[in-house]
Amino acid sequence: MSVERSICPDIYHPAIARDGLLTRLRTPGGVLNTVQCQTIAELLATIGLEYIQVTNRANLQLRSLAQDLDRDLLTQLAACGLAGKNTAVDGIRNVMLSPTAGIDAGEIIDVRPLANAWLEYLDLHPELGELSNKFSVGFDGGGSVSIIDRPNDLTLLAISDSPLERLRQREFSLHLGIGERGTAPQSVGVNLTTDECLPMLAAIAQTYRRGIEIIGGDPRRKPRLRDVIHYYGLAEFGELVRREIGGYSHFIFKNQCVDRSSVRVNSDRHLGVQQQRQQGRYYLGVVLLLGRLTGAQIEGLGSIAARYGSGNIRLTHWQNVIIPDVRAIDLQTVWGLVSDLGLVQTATHPSSLLIACAGVTGCQYSATDTQADAIALSKYLSAQFTFDRPLNIHFSGCAKSCAQHNLADITLWGEVETSTGLGKYRLEIGGGRAEVELESSDLLPPERVPIAVSKAIATYYQHKLDPQSSFPGFANRQRADKQLASKPKH
Ligand code: SF4
Question: What is the pLDDT of residue 164?
C-alpha cells in the first residue's frame, strides 16, 4: 500500500520523524473501552514498542516505528474504532471534550451527543479530508474540568442550563482560534442553541475548505482555520458561513477583544478521587509520566475499568487518564490496583502536569532532549518537594512551543547557545504571563535545570503570602515589588 507522508500524521498517513515513523490514533473525546485497551497492548507487543503516549489533544501517539502499520493491523484498529471508517477524514477526528463530560458534577450540558453527531457528519463528508489534520474542535459542557483554555481551532462552550429559560436563551457560545498560535479560541459573539451547533460546525468546516482551495500553497502544510479567517477577515468569513448555513440570519461574527491572560482553568481538577454528578459514583484521575503508557498499564487500566467502572477509561489533554464510574466501596481496591501498575493518582505529584514536546530524538527543530530532561526533573522534584498544588511545567525544544507554553507555570525553552553550539534552556515563569526570570538570564545546561527550577519553586513557597496565590501571579507580584523598590524616592 502506498502511504502518503504527512506533516501532521494520522493512523493511515504516518509522518517521518527523526526517530522513525510517527503515527497518531485519534481517540475522539479521549474515550477508550476495554477492547481498545487490549488491542493497543497487543499492537505494542506486535510492533515491539515499550509504550504508547497520550498527546496533549488526548489522542495516542506511536513513535520510532521502523515501518508503516500493515493492512491487517489497520483493519484490526478500524474494527474496534481506533481508526476512522473513512480513511480520508481520520486525521480530522480531532474532537476534544472535557474528559469529565457526562460525569462532571458542575456540568451545564453533556456534550457527548453533540460530539458524536459531529463525528458522524465527518464520516459522511470525505471532502473535509482536504482540511488540515490540525483542525481541532472542542466541546466544553461548562463543568469544573474545562477545555476552554486549549488552543483548539473552534470550541463550543455551554453557557446556560436554565430549563425555564432554555427556550429563550442560547446554550453554546462559539469560540474561534483567531488569536496568536497556541492561544485559546476567542468568543466571536455568536451564541447557539444545541440544534444550531451542528449546522454551524458544518458551515464553518465547508467555508474553511473553500478558503483552503482559494489560498492554495503546499498541500502538506495546509492553511489552518486561523489563516483562512485572517485571509477573509472575521466579518467576511462570518458572512460566508452565514450564507453556507442559509436560514439563520442572526449570526454576526465580531471580535470580542478578550483579555487572553484571563483564560486559565484549573487543570488539576481531574486528578485523584472526584465525586461524579451520578450519586455514589466517583472517578479517579491517574497521573502518567509524559503521557506514557506501557502495554501492561493500558491493558491493566482497561481491566480495572471493566471490573470496577463502566468499561471505559478516558485520556485527558493533560496526558493523564481517568477511570470513571467507580463505587465508593471499590475506591480503595482500585487505588491499590492502579498503584500495582506503577502509576500514581496525586495531583500534586511533579509528573501530574509535566509536559514535554518530542525533543531532539524525535524532532529536527529541537535543541534539547526535552523528554529525558523532563523525566530527570520529575525525579529530582519528587525527591525534593511535597507540593500543595500542582505545577504546570512545560519543556519545548524550540520556539514553536508544541508543548503549549502559554498554559504553563514554568517553561523551559530549548535553544542552541551561539557561542558554544550546545543545546541549553531558557527558564521562563508564567508562560508568557509574567516573563520573570527568578534565576538569571543565562541559558541553563540541561543538568542545571533541576536546581534552577527547584530554586524558583522554593522561592515561591517561601514568599507567597496568599495560599491561593498562583505561580505566575506570585512571580508578577515579585516583579512589581522589585520595580517599586528600584524607583527613586522623592
Ligand atoms: S516545540 Fe519545536 S522542537 Fe518541540 S516538537 Fe515542536 S517543533 Fe519540535
Answer: 42
Mean pLDDT of 321-337: 96
402 lines ligand 1 (CB under 6 A): yes
**CA–CA dist 129, 265 (Å, integer):** 32
Q: How far, in Å, CA of 169 to CA of 144, rounded? A: 21
Extents of the domains making up the chain: 108-141+148-264, 354-484
CA of residue 423 to ligand 1 center, whole Å: 13
Smallest CA separation from ligand 1 atom 6, residue? 402
pLDDT per position as a tens digit, 144-195: 889 998 889 999 999 875 554 555 555 899 999 998 877 889 999 898 888 8
Ligand 1 contact via 366 beta carbon (within 6 Å) = yes
- Judged on CB neighbours under 10 Å (0-12, 13-18, 19+), 367 is buried
Contact 30, 82 (CB under 8 A): no
Give how far Cα 317 sits from Cα of 16, 311, 393, Å: 24, 20, 14
What predicted TM-score, i.e. pTM, was given to this entire model? 0.85
**Helix (H, G, I), strand (E, B), or coil: what is residue 370?**
helix
Q: What is the pLDDT of residues 85-137, one digit of tens each?
A: 777 777 777 789 999 999 998 888 999 999 999 999 998 999 998 998 889 99
What is 108-141+148-264's CATH number, 3.30.413.10, 3.20.20.70, 3.60.20.10, 3.40.50.720?
A: 3.30.413.10
Which residues in 325-336 are b (16+ Cβ under 10 Å) and which e? Answer: bbeeebeeebbe
Does position 435 have pLDDT exceeding 50, yes or no? Answer: no
- C-beta atoms surrounding 127 within 10 Å: 11
**CATH tag for 354-484 (out of 3.40.50.720, 3.30.413.10, 1.10.357.10, 3.30.420.10):** 3.30.413.10
Task: Count other Cβ atoms within 10 Å, centred on residue 74.
Answer: 17
Q: Ligand 1: which of 22, 398, 424 to mutate, judged by most atoms within 8 Å of the beta carbon?
A: 398
Grid coordinates representing 330 are 471499590
> Cβ(372)–Cβ(356) under 8 Å?
no
φ and ψ of 315, to 5 deg: -85, 150
Cell 523528554 belongs to which residue? Answer: 371
- Report which DSSP code applies to 287: B
